[in-house]
Each structure stands twice: as C-alpha cells, then as structure tokens.
Amino acid sequence: MNHETFDARVAAYALGALDGEDRAEFEAHLAAGCARCEAALREAREALAALAREAPPASPPPRLRDELLQRLAMSARRPTREELRRTWLRWTAATAAAMLVGGFLVGGWVAARYEARLGLAARQVSAAREQARRSDAALHARLAANEDVLALLRDPATRIIALRGAGPSPEAHGRLVWHEQAGGHLVVARLPPAPEGKAYEAWTIAGGRPRPAGLFQVNASGEAVHRVHAPGPVEVFAVTLEPAAGTDAPTGPIVLASQR
Amino acid sequence: MAAGGADLIRMMASGDREAFGRFYDRYACLVYSLILRIVGVRGDADEVLQEVFWEAWQGAAAYDPARGSPEAWIVMRARTRAIDRVRSVRRRGETFVAPVDDGLVAAPPGPGGDAAERAADRGLVTGALAELPPAQREVIELAYYGGLTQTEIAARLDQPLGTVKTRMRTGLERLREILGRQAR
C-alpha cells in the first residue's frame, strides 16, 4: 500500500474517527513501527489538545479534588506490574461475564422492573465492547506481522538463518527469516527474560562491523518475534544483552548468534 | 521556577501525591471545560474528570515525553473518556426506554438532544475553529465533541464518505496552520 494512504488517515485516527478496515490497517501499520506516522500523529494530537482551550471555560467543584486526594491516600502503596496484570485479567474475565449476563438480560428479561439493572449491564457491555475493540486491534497487528513473514517466505531470495544460544543462555535458539532488501523477522525461543533495565539488541554484522538492528524483549516463556528493519548484506547475525535504551555498538554478552 | 508538567508526571510516577495535587491544579479547569463541553451534564462531567485524573495517577509511569506534551496526554485521555461516556449514554438511549438507575439519563431522548447535536449546534465557535471553512469545521466538531466516526458523520450529513474524509484531513491541516500562527 502507498504511504499516502496512511498520511491521509492520520487526522481521522487522532480524532478517533477512523472506523472499520481503515482503522485496523492503520493500527497494524503503526504497530509495525512507522516513525513518520508516529510523528504526524503526535503533531495532530497536540493541535487537537489545543482545541480544548476553545471549550467554554468551567471550573470543577472543589470536592472532586478532595475526593481524589483521599482516594490516593487510601491506595498509598502503588500496585506492582504483576498485580496490575492480574487485576487486568480479573477485569477482563469480569467484563466477559458481564457481557454474557448483559446479553442474557437483554434477550430475556426486558421487563420494566429490571430496567435499572439493565442500565448498569449496558454500561458494562459497552466497556466490554471497548475491551474487545482493543484486543481486536492487537490481533490485527499480529496478523499483519504474520502476513509479512509469509510474504517474505514466498520470495525465493529469502533465507532462513539458524541462531544458536551462546554465553549466558546456551539453551536459547532462534530463526531469522531474512531478505537482503526487505529486512526480516527474528523468532527466538528459550531466551530468559532480560533483567530489569536491560533489553536484548539485535545486530547485523558484515565486513566485521556490527550494525544495530533493534531492541526487543521476550515474554515470560522466553519467546519473541522481532521485526528487523535494517536491510543489507549480512554475514553474521547476533543478539546481545544491553542497557534498555540500546547502544550503537555491542557492549554486553552475545546470547544468540548465527553460524558462519 | 515551578516544575513543568512532565516533571510533575514523573514525580507522580514515584508516588508523590503533592505533585498530583499540583498537576490537578494545573490542568483540571482545562480538562473539565472540555469534558463538560462533550458530555453536557455536570454530574457526568464530574465523574469523568475523576476517572481521568485517577487514571493519570495510575498511568503516570507510562508517560513518555517523546510521544507528546503533558497537556496533550491528559487532554486526549479526557476526550476519549468523555466520548466513551457519551457513547454509552447514547447506546442506552437507543436500547432501553428511560433507564432509571442514576443520573445518566440527562441526554433527552429522540433527535435534537444528543452530544453530536450539541457539537453541531452549540454555536459557541471561537478561536481557531472559527477560522475554518464551515464544512471542515462541522466534520471536525462532530468527531471531536460528538465522538462520531467518519462513516457516522457521512450518514448524518448525508455526504459521500470520501468527502467527509477529505474535509477532515484538510480541516486538521488548516487547524494546525492556524494554531501554529497563533503560537508565534
């Protein structure tokens, strides 16, 4: 698809007005890491945020501030990432249940005396719907990545390069689906999650010179799929453990490398 | 010199409640004005405002200054939440007759009273929006304040979808020029 198509969608996306296929395609494009669209979106959002100044000025009742600060004080200990994840899972399960219950109620119990509860169910259903829309976008992004891999595999010039674990992670292994013009996808398994403040960085090495090919993290089971955007000739492909911000030249131990 | 919005968010991320108070004082009026403009009813606006700032407190660690200013961060979050509220009220208006459980019944039934109508009819057009050609202003207002998608706007205005898309895009480009000029 021509990039012009995406340029034309930035404004509508920033406004939350993009729907259907347009939205799914644009989100997949963003998820693939388009810096140009990210920048355009940032500018569009800044302009739209400035529009808030044109709303008729109003002051919130002072009690809102007091209530919020009270609530903050009561939840003084901030939840850890793991707790947040569990809360999210519970919430997803609860909204899924609410969706079922809501559907059931709408189907069978539209009797006057249940209207109050139906109102509540409707709000839960709409929250669940919003949740579903978000997971839908994530699925679309994954689908786009998978299709990208498939397209690469159809090209006879694409090579599959095996990577073996080294140094601190001999168990790890990986495959690189690589095309000299289009870049590729790195799939890794059994790589332990990077310690706090660290990330894995991929490198393409040609003529003895390593070039950075992107940072990535693995999931809890040690798996990751990483899009490599740096096309060009490659003799060796390697992954090192680096500070989370990334480096221009490898400094940490090699955890995965291709064989010559 | 006072701490900037980004500093306050960083302090909030480390659990600084005093920083949250200052962050609230800095943005609450702006955010509340926008929310009220979108949801139209003070009771609803109060709830949405609290929801937005509570989320800001909880999500402060995820704020990335490279992705936008603190103002855009909080304002765009507020707009999304306010639109969510409007949409859930609107859906309920379509699905159920006279829900009675709380104060959410504020949107009068039938045409003429929903948020998108308000977006189009308020008539309080000043500033940068006022400088846009009316056709472009209309689609931007329906999306920004009314939470309508392009398809919904096309249906409401009885215009081809392509026309709506073009107006939205050129409208926002114009708006950025106008705001850029005002900032200079």
What summary fits the major beta sheet of chain A?
8 strands, antiparallel
Distance between the termini of chain B: 23 Å
Q: Gyration radius of chain A, to the nearest Å?
A: 24 Å
Give the overall average pLDDT of chain A. Answer: 82
Strand percentage of chain A lies at 15-25%
- Report the β-strand fraction of chain B as a percent range: under 5%
Low-pLDDT runs of 5+ residues of chain B are 95-113, 120-125
The ordered string of helix (H) and strand (E) elements of chain A is HHHHHHHEEEEEEEE
**CATH homology-level superfamily of the largest domain in chain B:** RNA polymerase sigma factor, region 2, helix turn helix motif
The rounded distance between the terminal residues' Cα atoms of chain A is 36 Å
Structural class of chain B: mainly alpha
What does the overall shape of chain B look like? globular
Instruction: Please give the largest β-sheet of chain B.
Output: none
TL;DR of this structure?
Chain A is α+β, with helices and mostly antiparallel strands. Chain A has seven helices and eight strands, in the order αααααααββββββββ.
Please describe what this structure looks like.
Chain A has 260 residues and is of the alpha+beta class. Chain A has 2 domains: 3-52 and 83-150, no CATH class; 159-258, Immunoglobulin-like (Sandwich). Chain A has 7 helices and 8 strands; from the N terminus they run αααααααββββββββ. In chain A, strands 5-4-7-8-1-2-3-6 form an 8-stranded antiparallel β-sheet, covered by helices on one side. In chain A, helix 3 packs across helix 7 and helix 6 (81-108) crosses helix 7 (115-154). The two termini of chain A are 36 Å apart. The mean pLDDT of chain A is 82. Chain B has 184 residues and is mainly α. Chain B has 2 domains: 1-106, Orthogonal Bundle (Rna Polymerase Sigma Factor, Chain: A); 110-184, Arc Repressor Mutant, subunit A (Orthogonal Bundle). Chain B is 70% helix and 0% strand. Chain B is built from 9 helices and no strands. Chain B has helices at 5-13, 17-39, 42-59, 70-95, 115-121, 127-130, 134-144, 150-157, 161-183. In chain B, helix 1 (5-13) crosses helix 2, helix 3 packs across helix 4 and helix 8 crosses helix 9 (161-183). In chain B, 41% of the residues are buried. Mean pLDDT of chain B is 82; it is low at 95-113 and 120-125. The chains are: A alpha+beta (260), B mainly alpha (184). Chains A and B meet through helix 2, helix 4, helix 5 and helix 7 of A and helix 2, helix 3, helix 4, helix 6 and helix 7 of B.
